[in-house]
Design goal:
Length: about 300
């Protein structure tokens, strides 16, 4: 009996080697190695250009133009009035990101609960109504579609419905992040501690009371954390969405690239870095506040 139990507790080396995590690691190493072999052996991969002197001369020339060297005029990033003018575009970019996260946050708050399996048909389901299963599938499908389409494509379609400006970019970013936040928030509810909900259910609490006192208090701090993380990503994506005339720094960046105004590009990149640092610091502080509230 003791020998048999010892064997069950310590499986053979061959079985432990074939654990899923080790298989995944081996598969990743094989795929990564095969990918690099393909890149290095393909003549059209562009890898050979990294070892050519012409490539680095062109990169050096481009950086010199960004810094305004070799040009008799004053670089745009050394002119205060240009900082003030482009600062309005930076404010518009920041407002676009906040509006986008507001759209995503409101839409997710209204729809992520029906997208959770344990609320639709699991142990938290208040009734076995036939409407819950189709509602679960519909919301999950919306999450897949909205997060599967890139923000740039959504902005290109919305720009035909609205005039160029901040609103199409905010809607495009909001829709894309709606799918991402919706999936993450639904998974948070699916993985919460079920014991408070079971206790309320056994004491005769209604579905609304169970959501208000057992599920949402556990899910909301994590939802806010995900929302702030996505805000940090969105502020980096606004410049890409702006390429399709969605407003902000992105549109001005595309115009200056078209007219080869290199020092203006450097100025816009400076504002862009300032926005990224500002949002990162703000989001970090808000996440810390959310964690403190969760502990209390």
């Amino acid at each position: 009996m003791n020998v048999h139990s010892h064997v069950l507790r310590h499986p053979p080396m061959s079985q432990r080697f074939l654990q899923p995590s080790i298989i995944s690691l081996i598969g990743f190493i094989i795929l990564a190695t095969a990918s690099w072999i393909y890149i290095l052996s393909d003549d059209h991969s562009g890898m050979a250009n990294l070892f050519r002197s012409e490539t680095w001369k062109g990169a050096g020339s481009f950086i010199s133009q960004l810094l305004g060297r070799g040009d008799g005029s004053t670089p745009a990033f050394l002119i205060w009035d240009r900082w003030v003018t482009t600062g309005k575009l930076a404010y518009e970019t920041l407002a676009m990101s906040i509006l986008a996260m507001g759209i995503a946050g409101i839409c997710v708050t209204l729809t992520f609960l029906p997208a959770t399996r344990n609320l639709a048909s699991g142990e938290f389901a208040g009734s076995r109504s036939p409407i819950w299963r189709p509602l679960y599938l519909i919301t999950r499908f919306l999450f897949i579609v909205t997060r599967g389409i890139p923000e740039l494509f959504i902005a290109m379609m919305i720009i035909f419905l609205f005039s160029p400006g901040m609103l199409p970019g905010a809607i495009a970013l909001g829709l894309h992040n709606y799918g991402i936040l919706g999936k993450l928030s639904a998974e948070v509810v699916e993985n919460i501690d079920p014991r408070p909900a079971r206790a309320l259910r056994s004491s005769g609490a209604s579905m609304f009371q169970m959501l208000a006192y057992a599920i949402l208090p556990q899910a909301l701090p994590q939802f806010l954390t995900y929302l702030l993380y996505r805000w940090e990503v969105v502020i980096r994506t606004t410049i890409v969405v702006g390429f399709v005339s969605a407003g902000g720094l992105g549109r001005e960046f595309r115009l200056n690239m078209s007219f080869f105004h290199y020092t203006d590009i450097t100025l816009l990149l400076g504002w862009y870095l300032i926005l990224v640092m500002l949002v990162d610091i703000s989001a970090m502080g808000l996440r810390r506040l959310a964690r403190l509230q969760d502990i209390k």
